[in-house]
């Protein structure tokens, strides 16, 4: 439950980063061994258990950003394994209810949609009852959980809705990030010439808010190029997953891609205040030994899967 491993006063790295690789491999193994098509949530207990163990440990270390990555990997790999979208939506429904319960009207509309989905898909009776009850419970406990949050945690959520409510405190990082990106204009201020960065107005500029530096120094054009490179990486990884030799490497390739996708989505989103600030790095941009090492290990795995997939395609004359 420690975010960093330290031996003899020397920081060795973050175990959660290696756990992403381990979880991806183990989840791929479990899903690849399931030959029958999944039609209900109760058939997913094995893959969910694989993800739940590291997810709980990461939550215990209070690393929300990494915890979101594990959830993204889980749902992406379940989708790639052929789990029907109604099952995935019902599986995610308690979490959705917890988030939407802060608005009674929105939660009520979502609950009606969920009931309609259950009546249409017709899961097992016990499964459907448990699902509806779980969503009701989440809707009831959400206000209670809000009262249990510490003041700084409540402030962080309020700042996500409106950074100006605490411009000199919790909202400072997001405001400075938006200023940096907005000041870049079309072509930016030039490489290493960003004033927000050089004058240290922009916090955590080498890790969490590195994308803001890209926006300030390289402008809109640089941002588009960076996002285009990520899109190319995602498409190439998906192609590797499609051409993989069998189910296991295909699931591994898609799982590794989904981890990068969550990182990019959350990191870029939080610099623009479209996502809460969670402290999650940007792949191949942010400074950090553990995450960069794991990212390049993932690239090596993808190259191996790609080589085996091409070899099988050549053998079949495709």
Number of helices: 12
Helix content: 55-70%
**Residue fraction in strands:** under 5%
Report mean pLDDT, rounded to a whole number: 85
- Could you give a short account of the major beta sheet? 2 strands, antiparallel
Q: Can you write the helix and strand succession as a string? A: EEHHHHHHHHHHHH
From the alpha-carbon coordinates, what is the Rg to the nearest angstrom?
21 Å
User: How many E-type strands?
Assistant: 2
Low-confidence segments: none
Kindly report how far apart the N and C termini lie: 48 Å
Major β-sheet strand ordering: 1-2
Domains (count): 1
Shape: globular
Structural class of the helix and strand makeup? mainly alpha
What topology does this entry show?
Layout: E1 5-7, E2 10-13, H1 15-33, H2 45-60, H3 64-80, H4 85-100, H5 104-121, H6 125-148, H7 151-161, H8 172-183, H9 195-198, H10 210-242, H11 247-271, H12 289-315
Helix pairs in contact: 1-2, 1-3, 1-11, 1-12, 2-3, 3-11, 4-5, 4-6, 5-6, 8-10, 10-11, 11-12
Can you walk through the features of this model?
By secondary structure, the chain is mainly α. It has helices spanning about 15-35, 45-60, 65-80, 85-100, 105-120, 125-150, 150-160, 170-185, 195-200, 210-240, 245-270, 290-315, and strands spanning about 5, 10-15. Helix content is about 70%, strand content about 0%. A two-stranded antiparallel ribbon has the order 1-2. The chain is globular and about 60 Å long. The model has no long low-confidence stretch (mean pLDDT about 85).
């Amino acid at each position: 439950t420690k975010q960093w491993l330290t031996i003899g006063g020397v920081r060795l790295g973050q175990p959660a980063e290696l756990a992403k690789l381990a979880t991806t491999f183990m989840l791929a193994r479990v899903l690849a061994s399931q030959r029958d098509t999944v039609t209900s949530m109760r058939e997913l207990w094995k893959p969910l258990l694989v993800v739940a163990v590291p997810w709980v440990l990461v939550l215990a270390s209070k690393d929300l950003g990494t915890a979101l990555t594990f959830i993204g990997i889980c749902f992406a790999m379940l989708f790639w394994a052929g789990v029907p979208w109604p099952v995935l939506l019902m599986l995610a429904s308690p979490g959705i209810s917890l988030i939407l319960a802060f608005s009674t009207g929105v939660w009520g509309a979502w609950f009606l949609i969920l009931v309609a989905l259950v009546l249409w898909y017709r899961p097992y009776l016990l499964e459907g009852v448990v699902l509806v009850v779980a969503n009701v419970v989440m809707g009831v406990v959400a206000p209670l959980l809000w009262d249990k949050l510490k003041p700084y945690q409540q402030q962080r959520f309020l700042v996500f809705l409106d950074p100006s409510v605490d411009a000199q405190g919790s909202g400072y990082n997001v405001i400075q990030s938006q200023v940096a990106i907005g000041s870049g204009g079309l072509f930016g201020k030039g490489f290493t010439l960003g004033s927000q960065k050089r004058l240290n107005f922009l916090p955590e500029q080498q890790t969490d808010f590195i994308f803001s530096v890209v926006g300030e120094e390289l402008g809109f054009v640089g941002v588009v190029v960076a996002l285009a490179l990520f899109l190319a990486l995602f498409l190439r990884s998906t192609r590797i997953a499609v051409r993989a030799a069998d189910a296991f490497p295909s699931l591994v390739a898609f799982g590794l891609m989904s981890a990068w996708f969550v990182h990019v989505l959350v990191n870029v989103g939080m610099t623009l205040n479209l996502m809460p600030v969670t402290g999650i790095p940007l792949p191949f941009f942010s400074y950090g030994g553990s995450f960069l090492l794991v990212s390049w290990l993932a690239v090596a795995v993808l190259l191996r899967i790609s080589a085996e997939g091409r070899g099988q395609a050549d053998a079949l004359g495709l």
